[in-house]
Design a protein that fits this description.
By secondary structure, the chain is an alpha/beta fold. It has a single domain, classed as Spore Coat Polysaccharide Biosynthesis Protein SpsA, Chain A (Alpha-Beta Complex), CATH 3.90.550. Helices cover about 40% and strands about 20% of the residues. Strands 1, 4, 5, 6, 7, 8, 9 and 10 form an 8-stranded mixed β-sheet that branches. A two-stranded antiparallel sheet has the order 2-3. Strand 8 and strand 9 form a beta hairpin. It is globular. Its EC number is 2.7.7.68. It is an enzyme of class 2 (transferase). One of its GO terms (molecular function) is phospholactate guanylyltransferase activity. It comes from Paraurantiacibacter namhicola.
């Protein structure tokens, strides 16, 4: 399948502490193994077969780097969901969405997000099981969504397979705001679903499917092929983990 990719590389209002700690203008420019994180992400999505890559970022060094690597640039919106909508407006579907701080991103994970999204789905959302993350990074401390089939963490990989995926963007913004309060996410689905969640009977796949139905899209869970797909650079400890992982992989 031919697809486009959107890389979210906006800067938080007031700057980013990780960028300041590393002495660069934006987090996307933080170097890992001698290469800016944005460059690594661009390389991964291009290696997966993306025919068009758009980077949502402010004008300046990040935009210059994106254009130097043959990417288009769109101005970010106030929040991630708005930036995704702008990217979708530019490219149309199908669109793979990820973030510039996904420094460990692999082409295989991108392809898994695409190929793992069913043909009858509008949206695919990749998450990793806690067991998979702990196996790869035992000391990792993350926020998990607890469901009947285990504890899950997001991977910042979304596949907007059809134009109807646009209906989900506003809802995703609400989910992101409540990502540390999963009960509030489930509560939006109605009393029956909330009861199933409270009694430990709701799986993550069922929750995503029900949420999709509630907002008028067909949404599907895509299980990450590696626990490392859930590791991004949100804080200095994450960056240290990423650098250690790469050093270990290089032997």
């Amino acid at each position: 399948m031919s697809f486009a990719a959107l890389v979210l590389a906006g800067t938080r209002p007031g700057g980013d502490p990780l960028a300041e700690a590393e002495g660069v203008a934006a987090k996307a420019l933080v170097t890992v193994d001698g290469e800016a994180m944005l460059s690594r992400v661009i390389g991964a999505v291009r290696g997966a077969g993306a025919g068009r890559i758009v980077v949502a970022c402010d004008e300046g060094p990040v935009a210059e780097l994106a254009r130097a690597q043959d990417c288009e640039v769109v101005q970010p919106a106030r929040g991630p969901a708005g930036s995704v909508q702008r990217g979708l407006d530019v490219t149309g579907a199908p669109l793979l969405v990820t973030t510039a701080d996904h420094a460990l991103l692999q082409p295989g994970w991108v392809r898994a997000a695409i190929e793992g999204t069913p043909d009858d789905a509008d949206v695919g959302v990749m998450l990793a099981r806690r067991e998979a993350i702990k196996a790869e990074l035992p000391g990792s401390r993350r926020t998990y969504l607890r469901f009947a089939d285990g504890h899950w963490s997001g991977c910042n990989l979304f596949f907007l397979r059809t134009p109807d995926a646009a209906k989900a963007i506003a809802a995703w913004q609400g989910i992101e705001a409540d990502r540390k309060r999963p009960w509030r996410i489930v509560a939006k689905l109605g009393l029956g679903t909330l009861l199933d969640y409270a009694l430990g009977r709701l799986t993550l796949a069922e929750g995503i499917a029900r949420l999709g139905k509630r907002i008028g899209v067909r949404a599907a869970l895509v299980e990450a092929p590696s626990g490392l797909a859930a590791v991004d650079a949100d804080k200095p400890s994450d960056l240290a983990d990423i650098r250690a992982i790469l050093a270990r992989q290089q032997g």
